[in-house]
Amino acid sequence: MSASPRQHGGSPWLPIGLLLLSMVSIQSGASLAKMLFPVIGAPGVTALRLLLGTAILFIIFKPWRLSFTRASVLPILGYGISLGIMNYLFYLALTTIPLGIAVALEFTGPLAVAMFGARRPADFFWIVLVITGLAFLLPIGSQLGQLEQLDPIGMLYALGAGAGWALYIIFGQRAGKFYGAATVSLGSLIAALIFFPLGAFNSDISVMFSWAVLPLGLAIAILSTAFPYSLEMVALTRLPTRTFGTLMSLEPVVGAMVGITFLHEHLTFTQWLALTCIVIASMGAALTIKPKSKIKKIK
């Protein structure tokens, strides 16, 4: 059972503020990454982010002190591969669709995990609400056949990132039993070993490590990895799990607002309606479905 604010003898507003700051940091990192796409491409930004993020996580968690067993190898491999897939596809999605929409579509992954085995009527209501949100986003029907319709390939990338997130949770639950919080550093290393060469091959590595790009890559790694992860760990120890999950459901809205502010990505009414359906479903799932464990995501 997670600790409540009263158990820590403090106000809940501080951890709530830290969690909101964490979400703003993650989405700001994503918007900065999108600004860098024209220079080294989405694969290149993914490669640089994973490389620098792994270096930061290694300094924080010192995973070389850990011991490995046969039982832990498969879960940690699955965790790292899914982490890389999630990040790679999410950045590819950002090349053609708005940040807030990409985050909302990616959220279908953890929602699917949370709702797996749903039995109560309320659980099925959240599933229907997610499907409704997706229906508003799919480029079908006369009301959605407009000039501002979303790129279907970008949407598939975002949904693929959501599938990666779902696998990340499943494998993360198993790997976390062996390595605890240090799991993320090991997973990030595996993701970097696979997706750094892939991203570097599809980019100009000399530009990637130039003095004009490298500081931006470091800022993306800090904003999307080290800083928000630290804030979320503090918030997680001071908020009930249900409150934490409900607040995290606001991330698509935060992504949309960051996209509007920094990327000038203004959503249509239909897109806002779709995003709202998915956010409400996320909140409802967090409030009514009892989670088996707590898994953190580094995006």
Automatic annotation (TrEMBL):
The chain crosses the membrane at residues 12-30, 36-61, 73-91, 97-117, 124-141, 153-171, 178-196, 208-231, 243-263, 269-289. It is a multi-pass membrane protein. The keyword Signal does not apply. NCBIfam families: PRK10532.1. It comes from Morganella psychrotolerans. This is Threonine/homoserine exporter RhtA. Belongs to the drug/metabolite transporter (DMT) superfamily. 10 TMS drug/metabolite exporter (DME) (TC 2.A.7.3) family. It is found in: Cell membrane. Its main location: membrane.
